[in-house]
Amino acid sequence: MVEKGKIKVFKLSFEGKEQILHIYGPGHTFGEVPVFEGKNFPASSMALEKSVIIFLPRTKFVNLITATPELGMILLADLSKRLREFTMQIENLSLKEVPARLAAYILTLSKEQKNEKQVILPISKAQLSNLIGTTPETVSRIFKKMMSSSYIKVQAKTILIKDLEGLVDLSDSGNLSEVKKSTERMTKKTKYTIFGKNLDPAAVSQMEDAISLPVSVKGALMPDAHLGYGLPIGGVLAVKDAVIPYAVGVDIACRMKISVLPLPFTEYETHKQIFRQALETQTKFGVGEGFKHPRQHSVMDEDWSFCPVVKSLKDKAHKQLGTSGSGNHFAEFGKLCLTRDDIGLKAGEYIAFLTHSGSRGAGARIADHYSNLAKRLHPEIGRPLNNLAWLDMKRGEGIEYFLAMELMGRYASANHEIIHAAVLGFMGEKFIATIENHHNFAWKEKIGLRSVIVHRKGATPADIGVLGIIPGSMADPGFIVRGLGNDDSLRSAAHGAGRRMSRTAAMKQFNFKNLQDILQKKEITLISAGFDEIPMAYKNIEAVMDQQKDLVEIVAKFEPRLVKMAPHGRRKRRKKRRR
Q: What is the pLDDT of residues 299-319, one digit of tens each?
């Protein structure tokens, strides 16, 4: 372990050519391979300056790891990080031009030193040239070109970063003459990744439109994707300095929440009647539904007066607090199958309560208001692309919408909290584990060092270790999942099975007997629902999960048994209503 100074780890060829693999400073460990493999060190090391090194004998170190598994996990994480760094280094040396390697190294320093404005070069130019596989003369020449193009300014060992985005682009392209200025770069067609098979061509076309926007940075399409307004359902879009109301969606911050009860599923039939009473009395479903005596929650004590449209919706939102919407929103009891100890529970089959709803009428009004505003601000965007009109996050309109969206996120969370507290309280039960996550939202995140706004419309966050819930239809299972942090999906996953046909098509193709047959076969009791929510209108959730194995891992499986949704006819048709 390096206590003081700098150590380089390197390889020498038979001809005496040196290739630096790593440069380590205080707090870094190196030489772990012999600990696990029991063989010689695969590379050489040398101090670049006066250094102090702590040597840990192999036997004692192995005993320490054995006695402290947490240390082993930390070491494994560090080795995994280095493996990723090696992969990037191989890619840089074999596939990228020298300017791209140099730009990538500056970006790495910026991340390590946690400074996007300037970095301190920890090694000499000769050592730097060795590290990126070139000559000192080439490094000096590229530094001059990068300074003349206004990407950086070099002052001795300090590198001032003048155009961070330019460096990001240069690290990808590697050709200084091809990298354009910021306003030009924003008009290029950015890349996106499709997850899933046989996706609706209309949804793919919508994604193509979205990534062609001048503010787009990166995108992804989830396996549950289908046609929406603006961004398709299942679309993920990262943009720069902007937010797109219809890329968030109308039901802002629509959420899932599951509460696990301290009851084995073997007791389901014993409690079934009280479960039904709780669903029928403790929440309401349908467009416009609310409580005569509003439920109380601290979210209503927050500032709702920061803009006129939000202020005007406070009373409506208060009345609807604790209610569920129409369409595919639901509240249901079922069996949670946990095959191994996880989420703070022992393996087993539990009774669980699962809900799906969002920000109700207030969220819909906010979405419509700001989407119309975005369209007026961008008259140059014609139909149907104007559904992707954006608001500038550096201007009042964008900042205001983002504040309203975040408030709707807290409101939707409060909505679920009240529903779960009311239903479980009616039964005299308390949860022993609870998980929630949301979609139809925009998050401030980073892609590398670039700050972006990531929209997930009908897609759920799936960063490394993040828990989420992905439901199926009323007759199909849902899943508790843990994110794998896939960068190609912008650390996202599907939010459900996704529709394979429209509501109108479902009502034409199927009948009530079709619904009865599948519910009886799967032993599911349906209290109420719109016929357009028939399970056959949805994709196969098992297939969707199989197509996103690189995005999430399954933690537990939920099988619905008692389901309540908005009764048929409660989904009123309203003009200009969007999803």
A: 999 999 999 999 999 999 999
Rounded-to-integer distance, Cα 277 and Cα 531, Å: 22
Given pLDDT bands bounded at 50, 70 and 90, which one contains residue 278? very high
Residue 178 scores a pLDDT above 60: no
List 327's β-bridge partners, or say none: none
Query: What average pLDDT does range 483-499 have in this prediction?
Result: 96
Say which amino acid occupies 90: I
What is the three-class DSSP state of 223? strand
Report the side by side order of strands in the sheet with 7-12: 18-24, 7-12, 44-47
Residues ≥6 apart with Cβ < 8 Å to 233: 203, 224, 225, 226, 227, 457, 458, 498, 499, 579
For residues 563 and 303, give the distance between their C-alpha atoms in angstroms, rounded to a whole number.
35
Enumerate residues 6+ apart whose C-beta is below 8 A from 440: 248, 249, 250, 251, 252, 253, 254, 358, 456, 457, 458
What is the number of residues in the chain?
A: 579
Distance between CA atoms of residues 477 and 542, nearest Å: 8
Beta-carbon contacts of 308 under 8 Å, excluding residues fewer than 6 positions away, are none
Cβ–Cβ contacts within 10 Å for residue 486, how many? 20
Would you give the DSSP letter of residue 259? Answer: E
Taking the alpha carbons of 15, 16, 18, 24 in that order, is the dihedral positive or negative? positive
pTM of the model: 0.71
DSSP assignment of 69-119 equals: HHHHHHHHHHHHHHHHHHHHHHHHHHHS-HHHHHHHHHHHHHHHTT-SSEE
H or E segment to which residue 410 belongs: helix 396-427
Per-residue pLDDT tens over the stretch 405-454: 999 999 999 999 999 999 999 999 999 999 999 999 999 999 988 899 99
Torsion angles phi and psi, residue 406, rounded to 5: -65, -35
